[in-house]
Model the fold of this input.
Amino acid sequence: MNLLTQGAQQLPEALRKLDPRHLWRSPVMFIVLLGSVATTVAAIVDPSVFAVAISAWLWLTVVFGNLAEAVAEGRGKAQAASLRATRTDTLARRLGADGTETAVPATRLVVGDHVVVEAGEVVPGDGDIVEGIASVDESAITGESAPVIREAGGDRSAVTGGTRVLSDRIVVRITAAAGHTFLDRMISLVEGTSRRKTPNEVALSILLASLTLAFLAAVATLAPMAAWSGAPQDVVVLVALLVCLIPTTIGALLSAIGIAGMDRLVRVNVLAMSGRAVEAAGDVSTLLLDKTGTITYGNRQASCFVPAPGVAEGGLRDAARLSSIADQTPEGRSVVDLALRMGADDQDLPRDAVFVEFTAQTRMSGVDLSDGTQVRKGAGSAIAAWLGTEQPAEVREIVADISRAGGTPLVIGRRDAAGTGEVLGVIHLKDVVKEGMSERFAELRSMGIRTVMITGDNALTAEAIAREAGVDDFLAEATPEDKMAYIQREQEGGRLVAMTGDGTNDAPALAAADVGVAMNSGTAAAKEAGNMVDLDSDPTKLIDIVEIGKQLLITRGALTTFSIANDVAKYFAIIPAMFVAAYPSLDRLNVMGLATPQSAILSAVVFNALVIVGLIPLALRGVRFRAASATAVLRRNLLVFGLGGIVVPFVGIKLIDLIVSTIPGI
Amino acid sequence: MTDTVGGVLTIALLVALLAAVYVPYGDYMARVYTSTSHLRVERLVYRLSGVDPDAEQGARSYAASAVGFSLVGIVVLMAVQLCQAALPMDRGLPGVGLWMSFNTAVSFVTNTNWQSYAGESTLGFTVQMAGLAVQNFLSAAVGIAVAVALVRGFVRTRSGSLGNFWVDLTRGTIRILLPLSFVAAVLLVAGGVVQSFGDTMMQALSGHPQVLTGGPVASQEAIKELGNNGGGFFNANSAHPFENPSGWTNLLQVFLILVTPVALTRTLGTMLGNRRQGVAFLGVMGVLWSLALAAATWSEVTGQGAAAQAAGAAMEGKETRFGEWASALFAVSTTATSTGAVNASHDSLTPVGGGVAMLNMMLGEIVPGGVGAGIYGILVMAVLAVFVAGLMVGRTPELLGKKISARQMTYVALYTLTTPALVLVGTGVAISRDSTSDAMGNAGGHGFSEVLYAFTSAANNNGSAFGGLTVTSDFFQVTLGLAMLLGRLVPIVLVLLLAGSLAAQGRVPATAGTLPTHTPLFVGMLVGVILVMTGLTYFPSLALGPIAEALA
Done:
């Protein structure tokens, strides 16, 4: 839906927002409202084309500001409406203590109730599965159509009200009362009903209020000064000057920027529980990232074959492939992939070959061929035991090297029908770092953000992966307590920390972190503790969240700068217009060559109103953010919004004046 | 030597002198305010006044001490003036009137030194020396103390204290201002400035006897410039040949005016452990000071404006022994610091020259500003600049490792609102009174400038007078007195509260994502913010005065 239609749709809402009790929240826009009333009264008492035009445009200024807010809210409202639709009266099957079922409306469920949900039914409320396993369609909340598996026990036991069970039967213990469910919170968040001013918004509002007061003083005292100078000013002109000077652009767009920032997060499927968290994301200087799933693909993959002395690399490669063709584990498939990449023939396993699965006893897997040849892969000691020989010293060395580098060595052995066996070599399995991660971390580093990898691996493995991924630090064999201690240490040094987590034991750290992103797949406790929930359960998103937080702050700063810089041109339009009668020399300040004093003032007012509309898309979209050092970002934004803010209105006011001056009576 | 060569050489010499003392003087002041030991004479002062010099004060207590000390100073100084007739060495002069004594007391205690009286015909030696000169030292020491307290706010982490006001006041007076003004006074006497305890009778050319008013001029002159006070012994101030006899003494005076505010940027850098930050602030001050000097010198030397064009040069109101170059240099330096001494009549400056003088004060006395006041003024502006532009790098703003949030912005917003409100409301009220037109020396834009200048000078604690305007009416004595008082104490209280809130914070470590505040980019931005904020506030009123005149 494009912005124009959205704007048209939200117009009634924008008019409703003219209520002074609403506008009071923004002192700048409240002053504009008072100004509109004053000029309207003046236009009625002493009608003129000029007075009517000015007061009309002042009203429009207020409406445009409201429109920005309404459009920003409108996007969330549409989403809330679709969420609400999923919440419609579900009938829950409550399980009594004696195992009997009673049908009760979902709204009557209380915390602790057990309900049964079967395939095709909607989960009546938030809860944890206490019995069974099911695939669940969570698209109502996440927008992701692929079903997810939820099962009793562990970190995947949480189900959300409003989602649909696709298969099997589960028993859910309700953990949130009706009206306080995740869905309810989500609706109120995207609707913006629970929106409060964030700390930085408050600070900025104070600055805007003080600027407004300063201009109020300048304009109010200008009245007697002008009168003394023989150029008494009309109230319409003074109000027009005041409205042009006070920072209406940022004043009108401030709340829209905040709402749009939350909305951008919603679009990447992250729900922020407060605007404060979004702001904090911009300030984060340490990111704690789980290794598995975030930095690495989460499973070990074959990275190279190291043949034993006297064995051709091709021989090892083919044997390794043979042993893994039927192996459906990710490791096994990666061995086949690597072998093919290294030039192995892509032929099927011989028809009568038998796959030998991995067992905890043998600690090997492999294949038995019809000619009696057996191939096995497994831990070095297991293969040695199977072959009944000592491991060759060279192989032992290779194994040790791979272990030292943080990898997992997988030894390949072969035994022919006669029973003579040999060690062919070693497959180097390792955690593969996702593509592009080290560039991403370098980008973060240039923005002043340290990345810390959290892993359960031992220090050796962790260090190897950390070096490859390019993270700044790592926490090996990390327990929840270690994470917590690390966060506290960083915070004591004045750094803000962001982390992701999903398990119940992550909850304290999530709560302590400045930005704690809980995975939607995680437990209720984790979701409760974090201040954001990632509906996609994608830990990489932490990086997007930081960028959105920065973008929000940049947009605010840029529009504030633009708003203030605009005043320079407005002065050059209005001041000569006001005083040229008393001091003809001041006409030299009319650098834009505006037609008449009235057209000059009206043009400035019209520009002031139109610039709000013109900047709504930017406020909603946010200023483009590119990872770079603070100095580079500042230089660019100062140039665009500072210098641009000074130049643009000179052009804009002149153009408007060319049109306005054709109106008779101006 | 042509005027141009002489003028440029004077400026070059001045800059060279300032550069020579910048590091030693700045570091000396940093040591004064960070040292833990006390001089014997200081211990005596503490014992007599019952101060525990090793006790620390929080923001509120520090502010209460600074404000209380100033208010007591006003009461004492008023009393001394009202009782002048009963004091020794009164030169037979009567007690000063009530409102004039209020205005004068406030003026000297607030480091303004606005003079609604004529020194030689109103005040005896006792009032000048025991009253005014004492405040010349103390008010300057208070200014530095407040600046140092704010710097400590940035330096300290998770601390509830800002130092000890009484110690800072005592040290500033005893270790900095007294010894330096002694040296300066000796140099001034050597340059020909009068230092005596009596008037001289002489036979005038006409044959009639004439009284030449003398007095302890050099000693007062030294602290007048060094402490950025500006209250002259004589009504003609530094244009008077007994106060400022030659080009050399004139250069010395300009040097004394600038030396402390300039070197304090080094003190700031040294105390912060971030000398580049001090240099960056000096850069901001230097850029603005140079722009002002260039504009004023150009206008005075080329004689811009209708009157000067008609006369062929802009020498009206200037001393021939100084000329246009030295007059412009003095005018810019005295208004860009909060000194307010004058060696030429600002009323007679060209419209651009007078406008620059006014604009310098409107900048908030930060280029380089009053002793101490310049430092806290520019730090407050830096907070403002960091807040607006700092958001543009995508972090909640911080300055020197301290977060700028709602609380800090409240203090900064009120600070930046205070003086403009006093100037504009004061001028607006004054101009709407019929009697004000009668008090003006000129009509039209120039008359308006006289009133605007008076309130700008008072509220910004500069104290220089445009002249032309008669300010002895009770209305002006009271309103200008209040403008000086509020323009001094309200910002001081806000600065100290700001300092307290900063000291209580921890420190955010600097990363690549932190906006660096010592780079040329930041210097340029701060210059821009200062100019735009000042311009936006004062443009309408300047348009009715100097701008209208200059364009005519």
Summary: Residues 3-78+189-265+546-661 of chain A form one domain. The first strand of chain A starts at residue 91 and ends at 95. Chain A touches chain B through 74 residues (CB under 8 Å).
